[in-house]
Amino acid sequence: MQHSTAVKATPAPRAAAPVSATPAAASAAPAAAPATVVALATPGRRAAAAAAGSLRRGLSNLATSVLPPLFTLAVLVAVWEVVCSAPGSSLPAPSAVLVNSWDLIVDPFFDNGGIDKGLFWHLLASLQRVAVGYAIAAVAGVALGVLVGQSVWAMRGLDPIFQVLRTVPPLAWLPLSLAAFRDGQPSAIFVIFITAVWPIIINTAVGVRNIPDDYRNVARVLRLNAVEYVYTIMIPSAAPYIFTGLRIGIGLSWLAIVAAEMLIGGVGIGFFIWDAWNSSLISDIILALIYVGVVGFLLDRVVATVARIVTRGTANT
Amino acid sequence: MTKSYLSIEQVDKSFARTGSTTEVLRKVSLGVEKGEFISIIGHSGCGKSTLLNIVAGLTDATSGAVLLDGGLVDSPGPDRAVVFQNHSLLPWLTVYENVRLAVNKVFGRSRSAAERHEWTLRNLELVQMTHALDKRPSEISGGMKQRVGIARALAMEPKVLLLDEPFGALDALTRAHLQDQVMQIHATLGNTVLMITHDVDEAVLLSDRIVMMTNGPAARIGEICEVRLPRPRRRVELVSDPTYLRCRSAVLKFLYDRHRLVEAA
Ligand SMILES: Nc1ncnc2c1ncn2[C@@H]1O[C@H](COP(=O)(O)OP(=O)(O)O)[C@@H](O)[C@H]1O
Ligand SMILES: [Mg+2]
Predict the structure, then answer these.
(1) How far apart are the C-alpha atoms of A309 and A269, rounded to whole Å?
(2) Distance from CA of B169 to the nearest CA of A (A)
């Protein structure tokens, strides 16, 4: 019963878990391809044929995973162009965005002081805030998750409170943290922290609670002490769950930072968007959105890749 | 009367669930001498694993006691190394690391790093797994995993080796191969072994004595069959050996005649 609340709150740790390669890469690989070629080749040529085959397989993998999204993108841009080229359109067409925001596109690195900087600097400022807030959330989240997962009493005491707090929208914390810190920078970092920490706590706790009895028994027979147990059994065993939490956390962080920066001002991609809106530079907003999307995607891939490397071997027994 | 090396004395075990209690073991007593190989056989669910876990210290007996080499067993420890049915190797460690973890823990103080390295390799050699030191459990077969599990247990230099259906999940050929290896190791090291099995041939081939358990609930030791076959034993020669056949039929009779598993239909 107490378990169910935590599990429900978890965005499906197992389903989402180590998130193997991209679906496209997994389903691709047309198996039949090289067989017919090799069958007739002499042994000497076989290696070359096999190499060519694997190269071709690599290329076709690339084709099946890259071409479809490129195609979709082309269609979308074309539709956008047509729709927004109509006279009286309230939003610019892609061609107009290119023209209007050309300065920003070609030079992301300029710095004219104040907040008049290239997009690179804005993104960097946002990423720095996310890095600090997320790092604190990761450490605190894993530690609290271990506590809640390991101790029945910690769970009984803390879980209900976590379940309430995690439903508070990130931005609702901002005024409170501005009041507490009296400064935009730590407030934004706090918002990132408080946004990212819940899924990390909850998933870590589920992972710790799900450590197979066999591993616990191995630890008991070996008489591992608490510290050894945490490092050699608990963390590795719960790693797929922890990384599910970390992955959800990084996504939420990036969502929250843009919103938070709109309110706190200063350098950062969020305020850049807000500033562009106040100056009616719609093209700049569109350009910034593309950057935000791409960076968010890359952040997710980075955490997913780290997860895949670290949890290698843990997922299957 | 002198105490046995391992002495299970009047062990009762009941599991209390909310509302009801199930009595699993009732008054189980058994003495095992040093170097003896004992098999425990009985139908599924009769409480064999429960008994083994009590000896391991992983489960507490409701009443009664287990004594090993004069000391009371009250918690798990490496002097009673367990090989679990599903190998229970840590999947994030390599074959070498899985064994090394146990070696480090047991001999961390008494042996140097080089000695521990040697000892890890020596035990993996015993089960012929040195070719896969850097493989992870997911990359080796079920039989190999069990062998690594056995190496890990042996590496602790336990007073008693506890095996819970160690070959239960393996195919017949792999099983036979591992049985031979275990016999070989037992002959070389002279370990005291307590092994659970549900395979009659395995029990007769490996054991000095076969402990037959009645069906649960409240299972007890029904009969004990002494296997007076000289070692080393060869499975092929035993097929027609009268002693072998007598033991085999005694166990079969016990299991399928007098203590047939009554299926709750
Ligand atoms: N932790 C437990 N709680 C309640 N009942 C248990 C527990 N462990 C085992 N049992 C019960 O004890 C009986 C014996 O189990 P076990 O020792 O695993 O049997 P075996 O190993 O002989 O197949 C079974 O009926 C099982 O349901
Ligand atoms: Mg069992």
Answers:
(1) 30
(2) 14
Choose among A221, A223, A313: nearest Cβ to B138: A313
Complex-level ipTM: 0.91
Separation between Cα atoms, residue A236 and residue B90, nearest integer Å: 9
Question: In A, residues 193-232, which contact B (CB 8 Å cutoff)?
Answer: 212, 214-215, 217-218, 220-224, 228, 232
- Which of these, B7, B5, B22, B4, lies nearest to B62 by C-alpha position? B22
Which one, of A169, A170, A147, lies nearest residue A158 by Cα? Answer: A147
The atom number, within ligand 1, closest to the CA of B50 reads 17
Q: State how beta strands B6-16 and B21-32 pair.
A: antiparallel
End-to-end CA distance of chain A: 29
pLDDT at A30 over 60: no
Give the C-alpha separation, B183 to B229, whole Å.
13
Across the interface, whether the CB atoms of B138 and A236 are under 8 A apart is answered no
| Segment A240-261 mean pLDDT | 95
Number of H helices, E strands in chain B: 8, 10
CB atoms within 10 A of CB A29: 12
- Residues in CB range of A67: below 8 A, 6 or more apart: none
Pick from B76, B92, B138: CB nearest A221: B76
Q: Is the pLDDT of residue A190 over 70?
A: yes
Per-residue pLDDT of B109-144, as tens digits, reads 999 999 999 999 999 999 999 999 999 999 999 999
Chains A and B form CB pairs within 8 A to the count of: 59
* Dihedral sign computed on CA atoms, order B115, B116, B120, B121: negative
Chain B residues touching residue A228 (CB < 8 angstroms): 105
Q: How confident is the model at residue B62 (pLDDT cuts 50, 70, 90)?
A: very high
Residue A104 — φ and ψ, nearest 5°?
A: -70, -35
Contact A232 B90 (CB under 8 A): yes
Residue A35: CB atoms within 10 A of its CB come to 9
Place of tokens 């876990």: B53
Residues 6+ apart with CB under 8 A from B51: B8, B11, B13, B25, B28, B40, B213
